Amino acid sequence: MPVDFTAIDFETANSHPSSACSVGLVRVRAGAVVDRVHWLIRPPSTHAAFLPFNIRIHGITAAMVADASDWAGQLSQLRDFIGDDVTIAHNASFDMGVIRAACAETVTPTPRLKYLCSVQVSRKTYELASHRLPLAAAAAGYGEFAHHNALADAEACAAIISDAAQRHEVDSVAALAKKTGLRIQQLKAIPLKL
Q: What is the pTM for the complete model shown?
C-alpha cells in the first residue's frame, strides 16, 4: 500500500533529552525508502558530557562531534528534510522529547511536527512479547541492522510502518492511525515556567 512519511531517530550523549549527538532520517514514498540522511550533532555546552553508558550503546564520542553543527545550526536541515510529512519514531515520546528539549535549551523555535509512534503501531499490529525496535522490525520482515545507529534505527522504524500499512490495508499514515485506534500527535514547545 502506498504510504508517505519520514522516520526519525536520535542518539543522545547522556540522559538529558537535549543532548542529541546523532540523527537519522528516512523519507518514505509509496511505502518505499526514497531518501536517507544522517549527521552528527554537537550537544549544547550545558549537557555536552558523553557518558560511558551512552558511548557503549551508540559508539559516538565527544571528539567525533567536536566539528559538527550544534542543535540550532542543524535544525533547518532537519525541518527541510521532514517538510510536511508526518514524522514516525519508535518510542516517539523520546525522539519528540529530544526535539522539544534541545529547542528549549538552545532557545530555538520548536517545529510543529505531526508525529506517530511506531511502538504503538507495533502493539496494534504484531503479537510480540516485547515491541522493542529489533523485535518489531523482525516482525515486519526487516532483517538484522546496527541497532542504536540513528540511520539504521530510522530505517527499521520505516519498515515497521510500511509493513503495518500493508497489513492494515491502508494507504496513508492518517488511515493507519485511524485503523489502529491511534492519534497523530502535534509536537509543541515545552511550556515556560513562570
A: 0.96
Helix axes 71-82, 92-106, angle to 10 degrees: 130
Distances (CA, A) of 12 to 17, 42, 163, 192: 7, 10, 28, 23
| 26, 36 Cβ separation under 8 angstroms | yes
**Strand stretches in the chain, DSSP E:** 5-12, 20-29, 32-40, 86-89, 114-117, 185-186
Cβ-contact 104, 75 below 8 angstroms: no
Read off the C-alpha cell for 111.
517545529
Residue whose grid cell is 547522556: 14
User: The CATH number of the domain where 72 resides is what?
Assistant: 3.30.420.10
DSSP structural state of residue 70: B
pLDDT at site 8: 98
Q: Into how many domains does the chain fold?
A: 1
State pLDDT tens for residues 101-115.
999 999 999 999 999
Q: Is residue 191 situated within a structural domain?
A: no
